[in-house]
TrEMBL record:
<feature type="transmembrane region" description="Helical">
    <location>
        <begin position="193"/>
        <end position="209"/>
    </location>
</feature>
<feature type="transmembrane region" description="Helical">
    <location>
        <begin position="361"/>
        <end position="382"/>
    </location>
</feature>
<feature type="transmembrane region" description="Helical">
    <location>
        <begin position="215"/>
        <end position="239"/>
    </location>
</feature>
<feature type="transmembrane region" description="Helical">
    <location>
        <begin position="337"/>
        <end position="355"/>
    </location>
</feature>
<feature type="transmembrane region" description="Helical">
    <location>
        <begin position="273"/>
        <end position="297"/>
    </location>
</feature>
<feature type="transmembrane region" description="Helical">
    <location>
        <begin position="90"/>
        <end position="111"/>
    </location>
</feature>
<feature type="transmembrane region" description="Helical">
    <location>
        <begin position="123"/>
        <end position="143"/>
    </location>
</feature>
<feature type="transmembrane region" description="Helical">
    <location>
        <begin position="149"/>
        <end position="172"/>
    </location>
</feature>
<feature type="transmembrane region" description="Helical">
    <location>
        <begin position="303"/>
        <end position="325"/>
    </location>
</feature>
<keyword id="KW-0472">Membrane</keyword>
<dbReference type="InterPro" id="IPR052556">
    <property type="entry name" value="PolySynth_Transporter"/>
</dbReference>
<keyword id="KW-0812">Transmembrane</keyword>
<dbReference type="InterPro" id="IPR002797">
    <property type="entry name" value="Polysacc_synth"/>
</dbReference>
<feature type="transmembrane region" description="Helical">
    <location>
        <begin position="27"/>
        <end position="47"/>
    </location>
</feature>
<dbReference type="Pfam" id="PF01943">
    <property type="entry name" value="Polysacc_synt"/>
</dbReference>
<feature type="transmembrane region" description="Helical">
    <location>
        <begin position="59"/>
        <end position="84"/>
    </location>
</feature>
<dbReference type="GO" id="GO:0016020">
    <property type="term" value="C:membrane"/>
</dbReference>
């Protein structure tokens, strides 16, 4: 985290609000199509591997082939969309195309799920840590040699390439199952992952559409102000995300063994995530001004109020991430689409109303309300998902979470 703060600080100060904004504006397109290229399979594959150990190689190999095809198509679509949205901004077109190449690396993310299903996530952490260190050195070198924004866009490719390389090396080192393709498995994965694909696309759309709308309505500088706050608000979430990923296979396995133990483990996970989030949000809210001024400088002073709003949206985002486990295990993935659709509609409508009037602060308010509605309030809309609403409340109140 310390290295990340230093690199982010120096990079933002070097690029300035305009170029920092353009870099994040183009990255918003990449993040949207990263979800497209994953096809929703990432939400179900761990559960499939646990249930069908003998078909692990087939599941991984088939997913890799499907993602290779979807990633290639996504790169082409990104290029066409950006050409249409920003026909005269060649800088945006070039940096977006450069960053889009990283989608080809998403193909090998599939192997991560084999490590997760075997409770060996530490090797994924090692791979990502090495990649982050290399990319940090790359970015610092660019600042030292005063390179242009285009070289910073290449960092996205380098990070994906290094992570993929180490994941593949670890997979063969630990003698992972032989990878193979199956048309029947492909059909089954696409069918099961469909609802999660639509939901994931809607999620990433409404979490990234604010940057795109800010760029179209207000310009690159406002995107830079917003992106600076968003970066700080998300800086700490690797901790709860690591907890969620580690707990996922344990909870899924416990469902097949003991229902009460399964529910208790799930409440414990939610309790941990919620209260870690509350603690982090309070600290960052109180220290928002010195954090922004120390990391970004006076040029980003408008990011302070944006950060105070956005940091509280992270809690609900984590609640949504944890909810995906329950929906998968209970075979209720179809509701995910409805939940996210509510949030997406709210976010887009509020962005259209608030961004022209309040700029980056308006986008932050829209994001917070969208997260609250889609990840928490929406559970009350359907009878079958109301038990999860109660479970989350119980977890917040420390009810039935003792070990």
């Amino acid at each position: 985290m310390g290295l990340s703060l230093i690199v982010t600080s120096l990079m933002a100060r070097y690029l300035g609000t305009q170029n920092f904004g353009l870099l994040n504006y183009s990255l918003a397109y990449i993040l949207i199509f990263t979800t497209v290229s994953k096809l929703g399979i990432d939400s179900i594959i761990v559960n499939e591997i646990i249930k069908k150990r003998e078909d692990t190689g087939k599941l991984i190999g088939t997913t890799i082939c499907l993602r290779l095809l979807s990633s290639t198509l996504s790169i082409s679509l990104i290029f066409l969309i950006v050409r249409y949205m920003d026909p005269h901004d060649y800088t945006v077109q070039i940096i977006t195309f450069i960053q889009s190449i990283s989608l080809l690396m998403v193909v090998f993310d599939t192997i991560e799920f084999w490590f997760q299903s075997n409770l060996q996530s530490k090797y994924i952490v090692i791979s990502k840590s090495i990649a982050f260190t290399i990319v940090s050195v790359w970015r610092l070198s660019l600042i030292f040699f005063e390179k242009s924004i285009y070289y910073f866009a290449v960092a996205t490719i380098i990070e994906g390439l290094v992570i993929s390389l180490f994941i593949v090396v670890f997979y063969f080192k630990f003698k992972g199952p032989k990878i193979r393709f199956s048309f029947l498995t492909a059909k089954d994965l696409l069918s099961q992952g469909f609802y999660f694909f639509i939901a994931g696309l809607l999620i990433v759309a409404y979490t990234q559409i604010d940057k795109i709308m800010l760029g179209q309505i207000m310009g690159g500088t406002t995107v830079g102000i917003y992106a600076a706050a968003m970066t700080i608000s998300s800086l700490w979430v690797f901790i709860p995300n690591a907890i969620i990923q580690s707990a996922r296979p344990v909870i899924m396995i416990s469902k097949t063994e003991n229902e009460q133990f399964y529910l208790k483990k799930y409440r414990q996970l939610y309790c941990s995530i919620i209260w870690i989030g509350i603690g982090a949000s309070i600290c960052i809210t109180l220290l928002s001004k010195p954090i922004i001024l120390l990391i970004y400088g006076n040029e980003f002073i408008e990011s302070i109020n944006v950060l105070i709003i956005l940091i509280w949206s992270r809690i609900f985002s984590l609640i949504g991430t944890t909810r995906a486990i329950w929906l998968t295990v209970e075979d209720l993935g179809r509701f995910q689409v409805s939940f996210v659709a509510f949030g997406a509609i709210v976010n887009i409508v509020l962005n259209l109303i608030l961004i022209p009037r309040y700029g980056a602060i308006g986008a932050a308010i829209a994001t917070l309300l969208a997260e609250v509605i889609s990840t928490f309030i929406a559970l009350l809309f359907f009878k079958k998902t109301r038990p999860l609403f109660k479970l989350i409340i119980d977890a917040f109140l420390f009810k039935d979470v003792k070990i």
